[in-house]
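During the no-cost extension, the postdoctoral fellow (Dr. R.K.) reprocessed legacy sequence entries with the updated structure-token encoder. One reprocessed record is reproduced below for audit purposes.
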Amino acid sequence: MDPYTEQQLVRNQDSRNTWQRYAEHRQHVMELLCENSKDDYRSICIWGAGNANDLDLNRLLEVFSEVHLVDLDQEALLFAVEQQSLRTTPTVILHGGVDLLGITEFTSNAVAEQRNPAAIDRLLRHFRTPPAPPCERCDVVASVCLLSQLIEAIATLVGPSHPRLPELVTAVRCHHWQGLLQATRPGGRAFLITEILSSDTFPTLTTIPNPSLRNALAQQINMRNFYTGLNPAILESLAEREPAIGRLCNGIVAHPPWRWNFGPRTYAVTAYEARTLSSD
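Re-encoded structure tokens follow.
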């Protein structure tokens, strides 16, 4: 098994029993995905669903007639539907074994081979092609706390101090957004939900009153305290920065941030929404 796949499986194993702890985070995610959905929206696809502890699948089924769950880890998806008593529900469709980043073929190579200039060029060429949609295009497609893991995988692959890491991170970010948008039907909604920083580097994150959270996070961002590649200002402006993204949607809108109690740490989470161009 390649190191990237192995790492994802271990993470899902370690986070199995977190349903109660994720309650507040899950509520925010579900409000985003379920509210303001049009009556003719029938299908939703979740990228990076894993154990689905941040998803209320039964609530999704109240809004959508089909729920597609995508993850590299098929076992985690099976756990998800078992935990929420939906193992035999035909309208919850599992897509396991899907490498949305498409790098398992790269991670199986020797470390030295991964970091030489030719390998970096191959990676960049790879990211110029968006991932193939894991299923038929859906009305709503959401990446839920996945992009940070994809960026981390690239940093691990080439090394956190590699001089071309910023170039690769930019490519991964664009590759991911393009994939989301191309997997969304015309006139549909695509969401990118991601952690931007944690209480590891911002210890008072857990005690800030909710009304003050946005301003407090803005101050941290101005001090360059955010995860690599996840600067909210850049994430919100990608439709203007990247023509490949801009031509697929009507711009990107940021939603108010919230906190996610992960146990060992608390994350600040932000969400971005794009509506794909209508076919009319």
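The CA atoms of residues 253 and 273 lie 5 Å apart. Residues 3-276 form a domain with the Rossmann fold fold (CATH 3.40.50.150). The remaining legacy entries will be reprocessed before the final report is submitted.
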